[in-house]
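From: lab user (bench 3)
To: helpdesk
Subject: output format question, protein + pyridoxal-5'-phosphate

Hello, I'm new to running complex predictions and I'm not sure whether the block I got back is the full result or only part of it. Here's what I submitted:
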Amino acid sequence: MSAGVAAMAPVPVPPFDSVPFLDLGTTTAVVATEVRVGWEKVIASNRFVGGEQVKAFEDEWADYCGTEYAMGVGNGTDALVLALRALELGAGDEIIVPANTFVATIEAIVLVGAIPRFVDVDLHTGLMGAAEVEAAVSDRTRAIVAVHLFGQLTDMDALGRCATQHGLVLIEDAAQAHGATWRGIRAGGFGAVGCFSFYPGKNLGAFGDAGAVVTSDEGIAERIRSMRDHGRPGGSEDRHYDHVRIGTNSRLDTVQAVTLSAKLPHLDQWNEDRRRLVRLYAAALPPTVVPLGQLEECAGAHHLMVVRVPQRDRVRAELAALGIGSGIHYPTPCHQLEPYQQWSPGVLPNVERLAGQILSLPLYPSLPDADVMRVCEALGHITADLESLDDQPGD
Ligand SMILES: Cc1ncc(COP(=O)(O)O)c(C=O)c1O
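Helpdesk reply: Thanks, we reran it on our side. This is the complete output you should expect:
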C-alpha cells in the first residue's frame, strides 16, 4: 500500500444474489435486433417525426385496444391533458378521480383548469369503484377518470352505468394497464378516451418517453391529432402554417413508434408471465403479507405486485439490507401533496391507510421463480414476529 493511503473498511455490497425491483434487460434484448434494423431505416430516411412507422403503430395499438383510433403523443401526461382538452373539460368542471394515483393524473386535470374531486378507494383492491363515485357526484361533476392502478380494472360495468346515469364522461387512465381486461374487453376500450403511457418501465415501454390516446369517436380523434401538432388541421402538407385551434407539440417520435411496434407482439406473453409470477407470489407469501385483491372478471396486466404489510417501512428496510428491491406506489396520496391540498376533501380513510401499508415487490416478465421464492422467504423471516393487519381503524 502506498504511503498516506489509509487501510479502508470493505465497502458493503448487497448479497451476490440480490433481487432487483425491475430489470428491463431481457425484454429489451428480445427486440433489440429488430429495433436496430427499424431505427437504421429511420436514420436512412431522415424523417424523424411522424411518417409511416407512427401511423403503423397507431393502427396496431387501436386494433389491440379494440378502438377505432389511436393517436401517438409525447408521453402519458400529455395523453391525459390532450384527452381532457379534446373533451372540452376545463374551468369550473369537477372531475372525479381516486386520490391514490401517480400525480400525473391530477396534474392533467389541474393543467386544463378543472377541479380534481378526490375520492376514496376500496381497501382490498385499492381501486375507485362506482360506489365511491356515486358518493362524490355533484352538480358541477362533468367527468370521471378511472385509473387502472397497478394494472387492475374495477367493475367497469358498474362504473359505466354510473357514468351514463349521471351524464358523466368516462376517461380511462390506463398508463399501468396495457392489455388488462374486464370481461375480455381491454383497458382503453370502455371510456370516451383511454390514455396510455409508454414510459420505459411500463408493460409496453418505449426506449424513452411516449404515450397514446385511444378512442372510437372520430371527432375526438381529429381534435387530438390537431392539438398534438400545434393545432394544424392535419392531412395536408401545404397547411403547415395553418393553425385552426390552440395546440401544443406532443408527437410520438418515429424511433419510439418503431420500438413499440417491435414490442407489441410480445405484450400478451409478457403479461401472462406477470400473471404466473403473481400466482407464485400469492401461493408463497406469508400470511402477514396480503396482496391487493383483484376482481374475478378482471385479467390484470399486473404492472406492479403490490402487497399490504404491517410496519411497512421497517419491512422495506430489512428487504433492502438483504439486497431485495421494492417500491411504494405511492407514499403520499395526491390530496395530501402540497400543491393539491387546496382541493382536499378531508380524510380519505382507505387511501390514507393504504399509503402506510403498501409495498411493491419485484415484478417483471423475466423475474426468475427462484427470486420470487427468495423474496417470499425473506418476508416470512422479517414478518414472523409481526401481528397481521386486521383492517381495524388505526391499524
Ligand atoms: C397512472 C399513471 N398516469 C399517468 C402517468 C404519466 O405518464 P408519463 O410518465 O408517460 O407522462 C403515469 C406514469 O407513470 C401513470 O402511472
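A quick orientation on your result: The two ends are 55 Å apart (CA to CA). Let us know if anything else is unclear.
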